[in-house]
TrEMBL record:
GO terms for biological process: amino acid metabolic process. Its cofactor is pyridoxal 5'-phosphate. This is HTH psq-type domain-containing protein. Residues 25-45 bind DNA. It comes from Peronospora effusa. Residues 75-94 are annotated as: Disordered. Keywords: Aminotransferase, DNA-binding, Nucleus, Pyridoxal phosphate, Transferase.
Length: 282
């Protein structure tokens, strides 16, 4: 049974929008009213057909990605003494071009690697994600410093304080320990964390309620993968959590915060949202 002309036109327009880089796949599916999985399959098929027509190796057309204005997050203040004005200008322009690439969702042109090397087995949800803005900016600023530019870093969330000497001494004393540890963490450590949480939060915890991990990003991603329900994020929040939700296939919603509260989520905002659907998991 042939598709209605209107539906075929909508799908075709959505494919063109994705392949031209004017909008990401999810947005195109929503704007043109077509199923996202259908659009994704059609884009991949179209790209595969284009690649198969080229003998030997694939030829790819450059895709222009629409950039946002005033997206400069790192500023070159001045170059080293003795650097010519032409070199300084060139470094600035290079830095601006690199900065403008950061944080933008990749267009479907990246799917043109389908069938070549390891890209063909990478989940499309991963391939369509943008570069991690925080890490990319840090790498870019370090490269600009190596080139002799003066860069003022405003922070990546790393602690500026030295590691306490008692921890350094314990790590040194136990450097010979090389056995695998319990998956949930050392039982003694879990028990201490549970006691701390019980005392500070006034909720009874046991060590079985504690999972120790290498960082909050990994642990929060595990939580999103394990539990059902929507993900509610305060706006603004860490740049990692929304992409994690996309990878996990989790429905995500933003909750507003305010400067006068130091951007801490108000309890009544959360309560009002949950009251809309009391039986839904969040």
């Amino acid at each position: 049974m042939a598709r209605p002309t209107t539906e075929s036109t909508q799908i075709e327009e959505a494919i063109v929008a994705v392949q031209s880089g004017s909008m990401p796949l999810r947005e195109a599916a929503r704007n043109y009213g077509v199923p996202r999985t259908t659009l994704q399959r059609r884009v991949q098929h179209r790209v595969k057909c284009r690649v198969s027509k080229v003998s030997g190796c694939a030829a790819f057309e450059p895709v222009m990605v629409k950039q946002e204005e005033n997206s400069h997050a790192v500023t070159d203040i001045h170059g080293q003494s003795g650097t010519s004005s032409e070199e300084i200008t060139e470094n600035k322009e290079t830095g601006r071009r690199e900065i403008n690439k950061i944080g933008h969702k990749r267009s479907a042109s990246h799917l043109e690697l389908h069938g070549q090397g390891p890209q063909k087995v990478i989940n499309c949800k991963i391939r369509m994600l943008c570069t991690a803005a925080g890490s990319a900016l840090d790498e870019l600023s370090n490269e600009m410093i190596r080139q002799g530019n003066c860069i003022y870093k405003l922070g990546l969330g790393q602690s500026p304080f030295p590691i306490p000497q008692c921890i350094v001494d314990e790590l040194r004393a136990n450097s010979h320990q090389r056995d695998y540890l319990p998956v949930a963490g050392l039982p003694e450590l879990c028990a201490d964390i549970a006691a701390w949480g019980t005392d500070r939060l006034h909720v009874n915890y046991s060590r079985d309620d504690v999972l120790v991990g290498p960082g909050t990003k990994e642990l929060l991603f595990v939580l999103q993968t394990v539990y059902y329900g929507d993900l509610l994020l305060p706006n603004p929040s860490c740049t990692s959590y929304a992409p994690q939700a996309a990878i996990a296939g989790r429905n995500m919603m933003w909750l507003p915060t305010h400067a006068e509260d130091h951007f801490v989520l108000r309890p009544e905002v959360l309560e009002a949202h949950c009251a809309k659907d009391p039986g839904r998991c969040c």
